Amino acid sequence: MQDFIRFIREANEPVILLHDDSDADALGAGYVLSRLTGGKIVVPKKVSEHGQELMDQIGFEVEFGPSDLREKPVIIADTADRQQLPEIQLGEFAVIDHHNNNKLLETAQAFFHEKVDSTCQLVFQVVKEMDFPVDREIALALSAGILGDTIYLEKASNETIVILGKILQAGEITFKDALEVLRISRKLSRETKLKAAIDAEIYWLEEELLVFTRTSPDYVYYVAMMLIELGADIALVLSQEGDDIIIRLVQSPNYQEKIDLLEIMKRGIGDSQVENLWGDENFVGFKGTGDDFRIIKDLLEQLCNRAGR
Ligand SMILES: [Mn+2]
Q1: What is the pTM of this model?
Q2: Distance 99 CA to ligand 1 centre (A)
Q3: Are both 16 and 144 inside the same structural domain?
Q4: Are 263 and 122 found together in one domain?
Q5: What's 42's domain CATH number?
Q6: Separation in Å, CA 197 to CA 59, 211, 213, 228, 233
Q7: DSSP conformational letter for 39
């Protein structure tokens, strides 16, 4: 950590660089690092749908690439691989990250890397080490990152929960304040969510509820989370514009018959063109092109069979 802190102290007008399709952990870490250093935040192409909401709530902006950053000191946050930084050219850089197998460390000037639940909790350690005052915005940004990467603490270690408590205390905010930042409040958002809920189809799988609905591209994540909150055991949400398809498949932490959603998604998309496929057994995202009716039919069939129907 000391090498990393030395790098960011000595860096003159650094750039804070985040992985593409930045999530709450990357953006929360990026925001706080920019407060620490005065550096601007750069994202290669886009931020994620829930990331944009976080930026609106906390009140900060990012610049988008492609960027030639060879002449600038760069601080890369929450990024494990060059592939997550398309069309960015780098010179000297430092890394702060929590992913296994970080491929950037070898060529970094300095790094702070620990395999913990989020990058934001590492940034909090840096904040404390540098004696930087924690205000409301800093606490909200860091807690949003932790909540995002742990699926609202479901996957969090005890250590992470303790750190979150310290962040809330330091910024004099409540847990509810932190949850609120990750929620949508705009009228359009509420209308979109309500519509998705009203149009949803419900399937009984033995004892469990599977819920499927369609929505617009920016809301697949929110709508999936909303359906889980409303009581779905598994939520399947799709957006489709022309041939472009975005899907989220999520299972509730309360769902007993845990199944591997990533495997189900891989089979369901078949030979569709994949732009991005990510997640784990509990949460899967897909972006690509294909036949939405065929994919949904296949996913629903697999889920019904797996649940023993
Ligand atoms: Mn992360």
Answers
A1: 0.68
A2: 7
A3: yes
A4: no
A5: 3.90.1640.10
A6: 29, 9, 7, 11, 15
A7: P
Measured in angstroms, how far is the CA atom of residue 31 from the centroid of ligand 1?
A: 14
Question: What is the average pLDDT across 133-153?
Answer: 94
pLDDT tens, position by position, 250-291 = 998 887 667 899 999 999 999 899 988 888 888 899 999 999
Model confidence pLDDT, tens digit, residues 85-131: 988 999 999 999 999 889 999 999 999 999 999 999 999 999 999 99
Residue 287 dihedral angles phi and psi, to the nearest 5°: -135, 130
CA pair distance 230, 240, nearest whole angstrom: 23
Largest CA-CA distance found in the chain, in angstroms, rounded: 62
Q: Which domain range does residue 219 map to?
A: 187-306
CB atoms within 10 A of CB 209: 17
Q: How far is the CA of 115 from the centre of ligand 1 (A)?
A: 10
Q: Is the pLDDT of residue 39 over 50?
A: yes
Single residue among 181, 200, 217 that ends a domain in this structure = 181
Please give the structure tokens belonging to residue 305: 């069979």
